[in-house]
## 1
Amino acid sequence: MYSAAYEDGVSIEELPVLIKKATAESLLDSDRPVHRRINEQPGATGAGASPKVSAIIKKCASIKDVYIALRKVDPKDLTPAIGVEALDKLLQVRDIGPDARPKRSKSPGPDGVSLVIGELCNLITTAGSSEVILDGLRCVVRHRYSEEDRKRYVDTFVHVILSRICDGTIRLPDILEATLLLVSCGSQYLNTVDHFWQSIVTQAVDMEKEDVLKLYSLLPYFKSSQSVVLRAVARNTTKNVLSFGAEDVAYILSVLTRLKLVPQTLLLSLTKWMNLNLHIIPEKEFSSMVRCLQDLRYLDANSSKAVERYVRIKGSASTEETMDALALYCQAFRWRSEPVFNSVSDYFVANHKVRRSWGSLSWETKM
């Protein structure tokens, strides 16, 4: 039975106090920034982590082992980075083996595990490095809890992230990572990420391409701030459009179909890219671009030139899916493009296939 005093026969009354002391001491220090990929396992941040303590925590196979390791660690080694590793290991062993069995506490308050998890979260949020803080949040969102506990743990990180955004001490890649983690926690955090917009817009001028694409993927989750964030990333996209590849442009267009009030200048720059780089666009991506432009109700001189150039080059060699996309594009805008219609006709004759979208073109097939 869990209690605030004992866990698996190990007294843990001093653990929250010990971690609180380390938390207070860590506020005096600052970890160096460490750059990590989004899909890396949490708890691997090396800055401020003692290799000896890391090795001990890594070997822990139960909640009891983690408690003993935390009790024996030198207080100066109980850094935020070690807190991440301890938190990740504690959550792992809690979810497997005998520790995974639900245990009820007679106390109405948090059980011992929850208390220790909460204090580890507090310790982690004192890190000087935002990457360490995100490691901790990443640990938290990967595991299951009661709704009350999840909110308590996540909110611990939300408060410090918002504080750093207000202070201007968190980089754009870290803001985007925090946004991604928070939206994975559920719709209750959508209002929170809406508060990130000002820092995003300020730093959006010099975004790397990877961050631009990540921001596009997150745009549907912004609500009240979506339009202002979209305008910021659109300006960056228009300025650096030649740096994008076919998959990038197809992806951006697919995201735009889910948004409201898409800037026409952004669509213009993307269709210019299509017309200029037609020779490097694979057929799958080209078909996707055409369908997205139809969904966006967008036709301009660049897109029409790109489509007509494409069918002149490919003719009836295109796939059925591409021909269907082109026919629907013409139908949607009542665009009577002779090159497209002739290409559809040639495909019909060559393959003896017909789609309903082709019949709606009202074009006499050449026999």
## 2
Amino acid sequence: MGKGDVKTKRGKINRGTYGVRRRRKIRKRRPVEEQVSVDTKK
């Protein structure tokens, strides 16, 4: 139950892996309108 234990958060940090105990941060996707830069005003 420490750095050597792969099932714990500390063990995941030590190994540099991710899983249920250590989630990745979710990046919010930009709306499609922002990416394409569509001019909606006429």
